[in-house]
Amino acid sequence: MRKTAIFLALMLAAGTALADTYAFGNRVISSGDSIGRLVEIAGKPDLVTPLENEYGAREGENWTYFRDGKTLVFTIDTRGRILRITESR
Length: 89
Known about the structure:
Blueprint: H1 2-17, E1 21-24, E2 27-30, H2 35-42, E3 47-52, E4 58-67, E5 70-77, E6 82-88
Antiparallel strand pairs: 1-2, 3-4, 4-5, 5-6
């Protein structure tokens, strides 16, 4: 039982360490950061796409940046926090 509890505690701690991050020069954006911090570091997005559920209610936005041949998508929740960062070429 105790080994299971320790294992679960370690897994929870590892999950928080796996937050999405992206570096703009020497400044880093992470999931959980605010959109204010994102705009301060990266500037205004090149494209903003609303995210809606099947009933049409807004669930957030995708903020897309095109930088150095890469496409960076920051998924923003309705509270203005970064949920996920994806990068593609």
